[in-house]
Amino acid sequence: MTPEPLTADAFAPYGDVLEATGQSRAINAGLCARFHDRARLDFGPEGQAGISIFQAECRSLPYACDLLERHPDGSQSFIPMSADPFLVIVAEDDAGHPTRPRAFLTNGSQGVSYLRGTWHGVLTPLTGPGLFAVIDRIGDTPNLEEHRLVDPIVIKGTP
Amino acid sequence: MTPEPLTADAFAPYGDVLEATGQSRAINAGLCARFHDRARLDFGPEGQAGISIFQAECRSLPYACDLLERHPDGSQSFIPMSADPFLVIVAEDDAGHPTRPRAFLTNGSQGVSYLRGTWHGVLTPLTGPGLFAVIDRIGDTPNLEEHRLVDPIVIKGTP
Question: How much is the pTM?
Answer without folding.
Answer: 0.97
